[in-house]
Specification:
Chains A, B: GO terms for molecular function: DNA-binding transcription factor activity; transcription cis-regulatory region binding. The structure is a homodimer. Chain A is mainly alpha-helical. The first copy, chain A, contains 9 helices and no strands. The termini of chain A are far apart.
Chain lengths: ~200, ~200
């Protein structure tokens, strides 16, 4: 509202920066290991200031996980144009690379969501719905999405959800025990699976 | 060692009977809701006797879940002979019916295993390995198993594991939100998916 231009960050920008740092820290540690203390030390600011930004540990974890889920959704967005199978391949590649780069944090989100933490469950479900609903929604927008080969039926919605769970299992298992399968092979397995599953159904 | 024949159960048989009761109770409640008190009341015996059989609550839960996993493995065993696809269909049907009949307990096993309980994780992994390794192992025995259409390669081991995760997601999602897909359709989706996934791979 004044003519003064400040170079310091707004509280909103500062909070956002701290969330990014939290997500980065989550790449190599679980959510349980990501405390306000750890973030304060890495950010070089006081614990008190962090509590000012995030309220409490629970809210801090929720905000970091929500940011991580948003990152995942953004990074795995397929390109707007192009061949549906090619776009699926690009999205799957981004997903594999995201999970590998953020393994510990991703694993703790999966565990926390499955283990009964309601907030984590909600964020996880939102992320998964965003990833799977996208298959159908983008068709309407682009006219060249996967929806052109995967029609929106109850069976296909279930299949896409199942494929999503399969993909998660594949990348987590592969990262833990990579024996005999390369990254490119893994990506090919995942990308070829979805159209194959859809085509195999009796009503396809 | 004596000539006396007693009709009362041996401690081993009594313990086994109590485990069966525990598994039945788990059909409609989570593991957290299955206490020594609940079992004692249902079995009509004292808490003290139950502690005698199982030691503590943790060991009791472990024993019940192990029994439930053994039941699942036994009930979903495909018949020894017959067409591989037909045998897969029978196994998948048994799996769907098992999960539906034991929904709460099954869900709490999945949650507990994913949520970081090491004992549950171990039992869950054993059960899943038994279910997936079976696809390959039975071929060697019967000469007519799925192994005749699914060769034992790193890619196929990964695929079968992924299919197993997908199947779990499908039946749990379907049971929670059955909209538009019948039990028979669900079973057909799961049974057709595995051969389709394998056939779709570049090296198939």
């Amino acid at each position: 509202m004044t003519a003064t231009t400040r170079t310091r960050l707004s509280p909103q920008e500062r909070r956002s920066q701290l969330l990014d740092l939290g997500v980065r820290l989550l790449a190599t540690r679980s959510l349980d290991e990501l405390s306000i203390d750890v973030l304060a030390e890495e950010a070089g600011i006081s614990r008190g200031l962090l509590y000012h930004y995030f309220g409490n540990k629970h809210a801090f974890h929720e905000a970091v996980v929500r940011r991580a889920a948003d990152d995942l959704i953004a990074q795995t967005a397929p390109p707007v144009d192009g061949d549906p199978i090619e776009r699926l391949l690009i999205s799957v590649t981004a997903y594999v690379d995201y999970v590998v780069a953020n393994y510990e944090g991703y694993l703790s989100l999966v565990k926390g969501a499955a283990g009964g933490n309601d907030t984590l469950r909600e964020i996880y479900d939102e992320a998964r719905s965003a990833l799977t609903d996208r298959v159908f929604r983008e068709d309407a927008q682009a006219g060249s999405g996967l929806g052109t080969i995967i029609t929106d039926t109850p069976t296909n919605r279930l299949l896409v959800r199942g494929w999503s769970a399969m993909s998660e299992e594949l990348v987590l298992t592969w990262h833990a025990h990579p024996t005999g399968v390369s990254r490119d092979e893994l990506i090919a397995i995942m990308a070829t699976s979805l159209p194959a599953l859809v085509a195999a159904q009796p009503d396809a």
